[in-house]
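Fold this sequence, please.
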Amino acid sequence: MNSGYAVTIDIPKEHIPQKRAIKMVESGQLSLIWLIGTEERNQKYIPVKVPLTDGMIGKRILLIPSSLKHKFSEINSLEDFQKSGLVAGLGVNWYDVDVWKTNQLPVYLEDGEWRSLYSKLTANGAVNYFPRGMTEILGEAKQNPHLSIEQHLMLVYEKDFYFYLSKSAASYHPAIEKALKEARKTGLMAELIKKHWQHTFEQIKPEQRVTIKLSLPQASSHK
């Protein structure tokens, strides 16, 4: 409305796995999706190249089995993490897969419904932790009380969400891009981030965590 447009947004009522949602954008069944921005996606889809969360999605907090708290508390560097042998659970073709492999961190790949990872996290099994963005962590922890939010670490890579449009919705690109740029310029986007995720910052306390910076892959193989 601030840009002079009246907008109606229809959101699917049921959860749609990311892999299926991307195919729905490709076929025009969905007009828009938000994904971590990559060059491959920028070439394949129609990106609105305005970062949406001030990098929050690239600040990864870990969901873990409670019995592993002590082991994570002993990690203070990327080298420590590499030596720990702890395995991340990730969805097939996620951008994180390339990031974790680039940083020589082992991964367990879940094909199909990635939410099944919640029930697979164990202290001694094939998958030990699930890295989630700051935008996601509290909601998912609440839905999975058998897991704990790891309190010591924050893994960080320099990426953010972009909106991607279907070809059938390409005509909306100029208006969306203009509105998002204006929202960043006026501070509206920062206000919205603070409004919607203030509780997350208060609970996660990113400034008090040991930050491990992760290198980005030179080229990604995800879709």
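The radius of gyration is 18 Å. The beta strands are 32-36, 46-48, 59-65, 88-91, 107-110, 130-133, 147-149, 153-156, 161-165, 210-213.
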